[in-house]
Specification:
Layout (H helix, E strand, L loop, with lengths): L6 E2 L1 H7 L4 E3 L3 E2 L2 H11 L4 H4 L1 H7 L9 H6 L1 H8 L2 E2 L2 E14 L8 E15 L2 E12 L7 E11 L5
Parallel strand pairs: 1-4
Antiparallel strand pairs: 2-6, 3-6, 5-8, 6-7, 7-8
Length: about 160
């Protein structure tokens, strides 16, 4: 069972825009995760799923995670460290701006998410939109695996619900 997420009033989150930062715990990216992601996405490129060939034929020294696997880990990182509005009925991934894959994540590496809340404002009545600058850090590396702007929409509970 997971720990309940920290909640803050939506108005307080809005006031924190520009100053709030959070960092998740470290998560290991295993070859088993990479292989499962390859199965789900039908992306079986050898740099991801063939450790011997990847070691022999790439500069990476072995297999690397799919960029989209690294990107998808942002959900786990967010659940781990980001508060949500106390009035939340549901949260919706609204998409990304400026996604860049900057450094490969080698099998066995540990990664974590770093978030900076840039905006949390009314999108329309009953909805808030968040904009986070996010990066995925690789343990022991100065250069992050990726950097992006992540947008999310929070649907607020109607009064009385």
């Amino acid at each position: 069972m997971s720990t309940p997420r920290r909640t803050l009033p939506a108005a307080q989150l809005a006031q924190m825009a520009g100053s709030f930062e959070a960092v998740s715990q470290w998560f290991e990216i295993t070859q088993e995760m990479i292989d499962a992601f390859a199965q789900i996405t039908n992306d079986h490129q050898f740099i991801h799923v063939d450790p011997l060939r990847a070691k022999a034929e790439t500069p990476f020294g072995g297999t690397i995670a799919h960029g989209f696997l690294t990107l998808s880990m942002l959900s786990a990182f967010a659940i781990d460290c980001l508060p949500i509005a106390a009035e939340t009925a549901m949260s919706i991934n609204y998409g990304f701006d400026k996604v860049r894959f900057l450094n490969p994540v080698r099998s066995g590496a540990r990664i974590r998410g770093r978030f900076k809340l840039m905006e949390y404002a009314v999108r329309k009545p009953g909805e808030m939109q968040a904009r986070y600058n996010v990066s995925v850090e690789i343990e022991g590396s100065e250069k992050p695996a990726l950097a992006a702007e992540w947008l999310g929409v929070t649907i607020l509970r109607k009064e009385g619900n």
